[in-house]
Design brief:
Blueprint lengths: L11 H14 L6 E2 L4 H7 L4 E9 L2 E16 L2 E16 L4 E5 L4 H13 L2 H13 L2
Antiparallel strand pairs: 1-2, 2-3, 3-4, 4-5
Helix pairs in contact: 1-3
Length: 136
């Protein structure tokens, strides 16, 4: 497991995301494919969201999403398509049907990949693989 260092002047959300990564890696926070409802569902069903996962934590719903955007830029008569990817963490209060989005933290991408690792059951596969090959 990689060690994540802390910057004294960092955004307070960085510490939150760092802790969510740790909890995810330790399987203390279980993520599932996104299936929302109401206003929250509409927020993640837009065309930009390619993939999203959610977890319950401290009476809130956390949603981590990968969003992909394409923009056509014209340079004179030549058109070029520019693609970009954004990783977001949303904190949703289902009682108030309100949410807060964190997208300017680089660690959100790391959290997304920790979630994919968990969702794909990579650790279990590696454990099974090692067990199978030790038996030979």
């Amino acid at each position: 497991m990689a060690t994540i260092t802390k910057d004294v002047n960092e955004n307070p959300w960085t510490e939150v995301v760092r802790e969510l990564i740790r909890l995810t890696q330790q399987r203390k926070l279980e993520w599932r494919k996104w299936q929302g409802s109401g206003e929250a569902k509409a927020k993640f069903d837009d065309a930009g969201v390619k993939d999203a996962y959610f977890a319950q934590y401290l009476d809130r719903v956390l949603v981590v999403a990968k969003r992909e955007y394409r923009e056509t830029v014209y340079l004179g008569i030549v058109a070029d398509t520019i693609a970009s990817t954004e990783y977001t963490l949303d904190l949703i209060d289902t009682k108030a049907d309100a949410s807060w989005t964190v997208s300017d933290i680089r660690l959100v991408k790391d959290l997304y990949y920790a979630i994919l690792y968990q969702a794909a059951k990579v650790k279990e596969f590696l454990d099974d693989f090692r067990m199978q090959n030790q038996a030979k």
